[in-house]
Amino acid sequence: MSDNGSSSVLGGTNRPSSKRSNKSNASHEAEPLLSRSDETTRYDGSEDNEDEYIASPAASSLRSIQNGNAARKSDKDGHRWPTIVAITVLGLVAVAIIIGAFFAPAVVEEYAKEALVIEPTGLSIDSFTKTGVKARIQANFKMDASRVKNKNVRNIGRFGTWIAREVQSQASTVEVYLPEYGNILIGTADVPPVTVDIRNGHITGIDFVSILEPGNVDGIQQVANDWLDGRLQKVRVTGKANVGLKSGLFFLGTQSISESLTFEDNDIPKIPSYNITRLNFQEVPIPSTGKVGMAADVSLSLVNSYPVKFTIPSLGFDILVPNCGQDDPFIHLADATTDSVDVEPKSEVNVHVSGVVSQLPPPLLRPCPNNDSSPLDLLLDKYIKGRDSTVFVRGSSEPSKDTPKWLTKLISSVTVPVPFPGHTFDNVIKNFSLTDTHFSLPDPLSPPGSDSQNPQISGSILVIAALPKEINFGLNVSEVKATATVLYKGKKLGNLVLKDWQKAQSRRIDDKNSNGADMEIKSRIEGAPLIVTDDDVFSSVLEALFFGKPLLLTVDALVDVKVLTVLGEVQVKKMPANGVVPIKPISTDGGFADVKPRVDNLRILSTSKTRLEFEARVNFTNPTEYTAHVPYINIHVINNGSVLGDATATNIDVVRGNNTGIIVRASWDPSTFGGEKAEHIGRELLSQYVSGFNTTLTFRTHKDSIPFQPSLGKTLSKFAVEIPTPRLHTPSSPGENDEDDDGKPHFIDNAIFHLWSSTAEFTLISPLQYTTIFITHINATAFYNHTEPVGHIDYDLPFKVTPGRSKSPRLPVQWSLDSVGYDKIREALGGELRLDAKGTVKIRIEHWNQEFWYAGSGIGAEVRI
């Protein structure tokens, strides 16, 4: 018989409704045998669609049984049959009955092809036997003459069947073959005697039990693999049987029947869809080894929309994962078993699967050729990025003892690819903090391309991360490393790179108010380079740091984590993490008065006509919570907008609180740095400073301030730091203590006036502990009560001012005899009074010369004869 004929015999489009049938089966016949339930909640929380499904070992067992023992058929309207065997058996019996009932086989055969209508109403598997399946088949048999196109054939067929009325078949065996696959035998079915009414329009209910046995398992495996790989676009099934027939008392002989069915496109069954509704991982003891393994409990649901009923026994499966290459053998990861499953007609099916991983196989952890990633890394990479990966399920060759051997052989010969849904880790980080922050500037001696050519950050990291609810086993994070993008107000500041593994500690925090748990991870990062990529964003960050504005940095990172589990150490690469890091400002009031710099131990290193090179020891206070290491930095010293000199610091460690003994080298050369204008400003600054006025210095970076980072230096230059001019430490006067210190420099400690000799000598205090200062000219006037002149000194013979306290020579004084100030001097003879002084002074330090004005007040003066 032809394929086209077969299709017309077993599946027309305009089937009349039966008087004995209450409703059409078209709706459920057009659905897949194991369809998806749109009302069932998915495990991953997403909505189902037609192109996505989630597989599991339990569903694989359903699919194996379905493919090995049943099939479906669909006509152009989409009507599908429950199983290939049921269709073949009923079709062959019906055709045999009709053909054997007449004396005109050719006409009857044509009539049978077009008039026969079989509507399956039920298929259930009673039990699994040692050799096959005991199945119950139910259907409605009917002859519909209106489907026959040829009038003569239709009339002869109706007449003959009216006379014969009914026909009975004897017990027979049906064999089902696949012609395109070498005519392999895929199965056999035993059919008991069947009696049907063959009159037009009469419906006969057929209900019998048949023993179905699989045929060539290797051939079935080949077909299954083609189906799973999507290569099965069309398949033809041929059924053969020798059927003995009789009508009433008349034996009609034995008929050899062969019928072919062609399935293509939507006629071929699709892989069923099902939803994972529960997933849980936990530690379990493994009795065979005495060790602890990892167990996965999975619950899934699917919908049986067909009138098919059967019970699946407990089955065992091997869970396999991909290797490095497509041609490499799969890696056996876990063993899984399913509970016995009862499948009811047109109802939801719930399946429970248990899988156990006893140990991580070495090939799973071994790096792939030409790649530092292992198969486990590749699998986890897809999972944590939310992309579906593929695992493979194969029937175990050693299932439970209750599983029939033929079923074991069948399911163990087929490997099913199973899409495994990824799980995004968005919003996993609940809290992210960075404390004990330490900054390091670039080192000028760094090798080219090394991390130390960039600013580096060290600090203590505390992360609170939400654990997925399905993880119910011990985890311990031992080491971490990361590459992070740092953002400020949504704009990228730069990249923070942590190449080396950093030690970490973790602990689980169970939430009593919910079913979830958190993990607290602590780690200390050391020397993570910060590569600034946007100078404008960096300027905004510095502005917030320097001027006390709230500062929140966002960190988007890819983190590599070493995790200790009962299965050993697992390395998870490029796990996404993000968090917000609050940074406290350096200055809380917009200024740096709290720095309180103080300079002592000033040492002149070299001089020229315009330049002083000196070294000093600086003490200051760090009011922030941050510490820093400065291998090298050079800063311009500025006053009133002009550069007067520079200062260089090397190998400085800035700690919290008081910092003492910081060695700084500096230069004073206004004319070279800023020209004539700067020279004038520098002279004015020196005059104000030695006179005790409140002065300030501005420190600002420049493009050469920080090695290898010209853009960083230029960016920092936008934020000049202004501080009070550091006080030069001078020895205290006898009997003076720190409480008497007014914070102003006192280079003239006291004076002695001699009336008869008209001279004055001064006690001078030098801030230089190692260098002698020469005063080359003095032109000054002393005043009483700020306005009354006392006397005038104009002296141009150089004299020394040695380090520490020293006496000047007696300097000639021209008295203001007609002034009130002179009278006060005479009245103070043998005593003391307070005088002011104003004038100009020229000094020389080695090759350097400088003139400045001086205005002092409250100078203690003794008056002697």
TrEMBL record:
Residues 1-59, 725-744 are annotated as: Disordered. One of its GO terms (cellular component) is fungal-type vacuole membrane. Residues 1-11 have a biased composition (Polar residues). Residues 741-853 form the Tag1-like fifth Ig-like domain. Residues 26-45 have a biased composition (Basic and acidic residues). Residues 596-711 form the Tag1-like fourth Ig-like domain. Keywords: Membrane, Transmembrane, Transmembrane helix. Signal peptide: none annotated. Residues 472-584 form the Tag1 C-terminal domain. It comes from the Eukaryota. InterPro entries: Ig_Tag1-like_4th, Ig_Tag1-like_5th, Tag1, Tag1_C. The keyword Transmembrane applies. The chain crosses the membrane at residues 81-104. PANTHER family: CHROMOSOME 16, WHOLE GENOME SHOTGUN SEQUENCE (PTHR35895), PRE-RRNA PROCESSING PROTEIN (PTHR35895:SF3). This is Pre-rRNA processing protein.
